Amino acid sequence: MAKLGKRTRAAREAFNGKENLTVAEAVSLIKANANAKFDETVEIAMNLGVDPRHADQMVRGSVTLPNGTGKDVRVAVFARGPKADEAKEAGADIVGAEDLMETIQGGTIDFDRCIATPDMMPIVGRLGKVLGPRNLMPNPKVGTVTMDVADAVKAAKGGQVTFKAEKAGVVHAGVGKVSFDEAKLVENVLAFVDAVSKAKPTGAKGTYMKKVALSSTMGPGVTVDVQSATGN
């Protein structure tokens, strides 16, 4: 424990006084100071100038990271008949209808992404209070309510990340692993920021992208220069 404490203190000292770095500088700093015994996720947090309580200021979308997430994503699909078969063939981990709804209602949520065909939404809708807070509710705006279940499953497995502005206008997501090459992490970060930028809602006023920060799962965070992240 003492050694871990020393490494943690050293990492925090390395971040002292560091702010508004370029994306490349931030990624390099995070990789150099990630000291957990597992492959930490590189996480991005963006503070946006929106109030998600207003429908015209909600930020929601998805992006397929060019280098994937490094995570084994478990996908659940609500579908019947041929569409259920398509989902299974595409690699879905869990496929069902009422039976899947009952499993989730019973407290078992063994998946990271949930997809549904449109005809399944009356069933899925009953799970709003369970899936909604976990950001797992299927939504046509991010491509998780669709008849193209095979493509949706492949996208989820291939590095697609969904995002949604939470309270205070914060968007948070994992954009790769610290074991990734720096260049690949930078690519992923820029792709994610670009997707959030393009998802700017019509009701957003003033400065849209206020702050961007990067961190590893167990490490301290560092702010990134917004212009560096957006290319402006």
UniProtKB/TrEMBL annotation:
SUPFAM superfamilies: Ribosomal protein L1
InterPro entries, per the entry: Ribosom_uL1_bac-type (IPR005878), Ribosomal_uL1 (IPR002143), Ribosomal_uL1-like (IPR023674), Ribosomal_uL1/biogenesis (IPR028364), Ribosomal_uL1_3-a/b-sand (IPR016095), Ribosomal_uL1_CS (IPR023673)
A GO CC annotation given for this chain: cytosolic large ribosomal subunit
Superkingdom of source: Bacteria
GO biological process per UniProt: regulation of translation; translation
Keyword Repressor in annotation: yes
Pfam family, one: Ribosomal_L1
Entry keywords, A to Z: Repressor, Ribonucleoprotein, Ribosomal protein, RNA-binding, rRNA-binding, Translation regulation, tRNA-binding
TM regions (residue ranges): none
Function recorded in the entry: Protein L1 is also a translational repressor protein, it controls the translation of the L11 operon by binding to its mRNA.
Subunit record text: Part of the 50S ribosomal subunit.
Protein family according to the UniProt entry: Belongs to the universal ribosomal protein uL1 family.
Protein name (database record): Large ribosomal subunit protein uL1
Natural source organism: Kangsaoukella pontilimi
Gene: rplA
